[in-house]
Amino acid sequence: MDVRLYYPAAVEVQQAVLARLARFPREPGPVSRGLRSACAVSCRALLRAYNRPRFVGLEHLPADRSFVIVANHTSHLDTLCLLSALPLRRLHRTYPAAAADYFFTSLPRVATALVVNAVPFDRRGGGVHESMSRCRELIADRAAGNALIVYPEGTRGDGRDVGAFKRGVGDLVAGRDVPVVPCFIDGAWRAWPKGAWIPRPFGVRVSFGRPRTYAHLERSKSTAQFVSDDLRAAVLRLKQSQNPQTSETAMTVSEVIR
User: Distance between alpha carbon 70 and the CA centroid of its chain, in Å?
Assistant: First the structure.
């Protein structure tokens, strides 16, 4: 019997499984929540031992309402560091926006996306509108306490500079009463550069700025671009602020587990 006859069927089954796993919103059961919590604790312990992340400005993260974190992006380590900066009690309410054409195309990558509770985001085509709607729904409920992580550059950079921010982040938050926390991640590109299989033992520093809102602005293309540029400028200011003697307190990952 020619086994090649079964190959198209196998592909269809895999595609069906991927489509099911990529559905959003998802309501994880006790087993899924338990596995995600166990993975989160393990990742925090490994990060503390291997990359020694330092967190600056944790007091700027809203504790009682939904908000958006806007950060530069140079490494897969970025998301793990940002998740580690948040309390474990917010684990299942934190949603990193992940490229659908990368993280939701194979079972190993989908498994990774589910572990970090990623929301699929289409970067091109007609899926962009649906992806934006998903993100808006997550931050629309003020009392839900959702945290949406967004990388407005749209892809991983090389660590030399912060790339231009896509206008979509401005479309997401302009005219809406939602706090936006700028963040600069330093050293992740060195610890886990693009193309490397495993992380390297280099330190990482994560700096959070004061939250800002753009509820007073009317929604338009020009406004969205202004907001995107303003957020990039805020991230760049965090990058340029290298003086450790600040009023913001630096904390290690072990001090954030609460």
Answer: 8
